[in-house]
Design a protein that fits this description.
about 80 residues; mainly beta; 3-stranded antiparallel beta sheet; flat
Amino acid sequence: MLKKTIFLLLFCPFIAFSQCLPQEFEVIVSITQDDYPNEISWEFKDSNGNLIANGDSLGSTFCVLDSTCYNFAIIE
């Protein structure tokens, strides 16, 4: 059995080190890799299905508008 742990951290725009604009918030995708990290990918889309960000088992950090709903999917 493979075990994958995924942390999706959403931070408010008032964090001192954030590079996001005031109407945005920072999204940090942090993935704890298992024995098969090359098989992990993810997508972050807005409510219209537009791709905002995607990546692999290394994760990423990006900014999104705070007035929109989003969908996060991990693909293994």
